[in-house]
Amino acid sequence: MRQPLVIANWKMHGKGAFNEALVTDFLTALKEHRAECVLCPPFAYLGQLSELLGASDVMLGAQDCSHIDQGAYTGEVSAEMLKDIGCQWVIVGHSERRQYHQESDGLVAAKLGMAQRAGLVPVLCVGETQEQREAGQAESVVKAQLLGALSDLPDLNGLAIAYEPVWAIGTGLTASPAQAQDMHAFIRDVVRDLDAGNADTLRLLYGGSVKAANAAELFAQSDIDGALVGGASLDAKAFAAIVGAA
């Protein structure tokens, strides 16, 4: 049975005092839970969160990593550096990186490889826009993203995939549980064609305006193993409730 996984993506939010209060309140609100939980703050606060999380079972992740291991690349942060500072997870290929930084599937694939070689668990993000869904292209777009990122990886073990319909990120819109389940099942079938041995153990997450109010219904779907949570992860009680629902 796949263990549930809930990941907080703080995006570009947070300051020292806010972070300390948020993590402290979250750990206090977090009751007994079956899900694995990961917090992904901005790069500048990874060290702070590593200390705040301490001996808790909540893990540390980063929001991105470089496709390069080292060198004269101003502003880049390597997967090895993230591992060295205490990260265990890294998000790769988020739609905001694809949109605002023109990240290609090839670049995302290179980042996935770097993350795996550094010993990080990568979370690959895929998802279609509203226009693509309305044009009946949702599955073809997601399949192209999956194949472009995963085809050259030798092993898909120790990887998670987050389906984030772009039209549902930060908009308040959420795919219905049935829509989300259909896409998650499709993603698992695509993965099965690439790596049949790991397809049924690979954890698939839903992301896109996940809230405490809709989490349980989403997590009840057979192929949804957790969530990648944005805005709601900045509210300690709401995020604790989402983790509890998993």
Structure description:
- By secondary structure, the protein is an alpha/beta fold.
- It has a single domain (5-13, 38-235), classed as TIM Barrel (Alpha-Beta Barrel), CATH 3.20.20.70.
- The protein has helices at 16-29, 46-53, 79-85, 95-100, 105-118, 130-134, 138-150, 177-194, 212-219, 236-245; strands at 5-9, 36-40, 59-62, 89-92, 121-126, 160-163, 203-206, 226-229.
- Strands 7-6-5-4-3-2-1-8 form an 8-stranded parallel sheet.
- Strand 2 (36-40), helix 2 (46-53) and strand 3 (59-62) form a beta-alpha-beta unit.
- Helix 5 (105-118) crosses helix 7 (138-150).
- The longest helix has 18 residues, at 177-194.
Task: Give keywords.
alpha/beta, 42% helix, 8-stranded parallel beta sheet, TIM Barrel, 10 helices, 246 residues
Q: Spans with pLDDT under 50 lasting ≥5 residues?
A: none
Sequence of secondary-structure elements: EHEHEHEHHEHHEHEHEH
Mean pLDDT: 95
Structural class category = alpha/beta
Q: Distance between the terminal alpha carbons, to the nearest Å?
A: 13 Å
- In CATH terms, what is the fold-level topology? TIM Barrel
What is the strand and helix layout of this fold?
Blueprint: E1 5-9, H1 16-29, E2 36-40, H2 46-53, E3 59-62, H3 79-85, E4 89-92, H4 95-100, H5 105-118, E5 121-126, H6 130-134, H7 138-150, E6 160-163, H8 177-194, E7 203-206, H9 212-219, E8 226-229, H10 236-245
Parallel strand pairs: 1-2, 1-8, 2-3, 3-4, 4-5, 5-6, 6-7
Helix pairs in contact: 1-2, 1-10, 5-7, 7-8, 9-10
